[in-house]
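Protein Entry — a single chain follows
Fields — amino acid sequence, structure tokens
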Amino acid sequence: MTSEKETRPLLTTRRQFLTLLGAATTVAAAAPSAFADGRDWDDDDHDYGHDHGGGKPTAIARYVYVGTYTIDTPPGGSHTTSALGIYVYEMNPHSGDLKYVEVVPCDNPSFLALDPTKKFLYSVNELGPSGNLPGGKVSAYAINPLNGKLTFLNQVDTHGTYPCHVWVYPSGGYLFVANYGGTPDFPGNFILYTLNADGSINPTSPGDPGRFFQFPGNGTGPDPVRQEVSHGHMILTDPHVKHLVGVDLGMDMVHAWDFDDKAGTLSLGTVPYASVGAGAGPRHMVFHPGGKFAYVIDELASTVDAFTYDEVRAAFIWIQNHSTLPANTTFTRPSGVAIPSGTSTCSEIRIHPTGKWLYGANRGANVITMFAVNQKTGKLDLLGWADTKGKIPRGMNVDPSGTFLYVGNQDTDTIAVFRIDEHSGKLKGPMLINSPTPVDFEFGPPA
């Protein structure tokens, strides 16, 4: 195990940096009565779930890893965090409850990723500039399969600020990070690393054109506060592992790369990007398990864009844009990173393992929007909203069995555990678990 100094570098946080620029932090609004539990749905009239068999999903006991913000007041929050690092829990497969195992001290491990063998865990360290240098880091940990505990392996620079997403190549060997960035001096970017057999990360040079991509600021979106530069918010592979895609909030784009898994290099694809609406601010995305459809959640516009997906060319064809809020909503779009009362922005998007249902989180409204997915067309139809019983639901994830949805209420220090109805896809609950500043969830080896 390394020293405290190695795992907790003293660098400027995203919140500190934005505060210097005059960003304010305000308590988010509670969910209004306009959010009903959701209307009844008659599956006989629609092609929802048509391609999938029934059967009750069965969860298994496993270790769960929770990412957090550990420094000062987290983005959009109202109080100083008390989180210490990555929290490890053991999941009860019957109730979804979590039993505390340990916390591993580290700085701002906001988003996590597991390798395919579930032997290693990777975490961004969402940190801002260190003087005149970018301060972002990414860290590697080994997982003890007997108790789920973590052992620190190493940490490398991301050559960017506020790294906010990490992804492991599905067959292992490579790691990808999206740096959100902050200002024209520190724009967002995307970076690729190679992994060693022991799980540790090999450094990458920002001068490597096949492993480091920073897009120019002249292609930014129209929002002068949130889209002043490229803002990398997510990077992931498509279901057939032929391409990499990067969601860029600043440019209103989803970038697409071809990946040479022999050389370990990226090159812009035949169709190098897909666009969303001007000023929409795409944040995260998911692919349908069948690979035919993709869904992008737009942070600034509070919408979801649906696309058909051509896996040969990594081409996205837009088919639908759906609001995550009611038609008569009084919520408005915030003007900065803070989420004042009466405003709302989207955060996470997840799809059920069957591909039948899609879920989107709304910070400010503090609800999860539930959609049914048409298996023939890929289009979405609204099922309703589920109150998270907390504030600032930033990250969430569905357990591998499709039984539970875990949501991190960042600003009220609780994890909301919903049970997913196996027939309708609607969310039941939630059960609340106290946990400081929960942000992201990864489901590890069986317990």
Summary: The first strand starts at residue 62 and ends at 68. Helices lie at 4-7, 14-20. The domain at 43-446 is CATH 2.130.10.10 (Methylamine Dehydrogenase; Chain H).
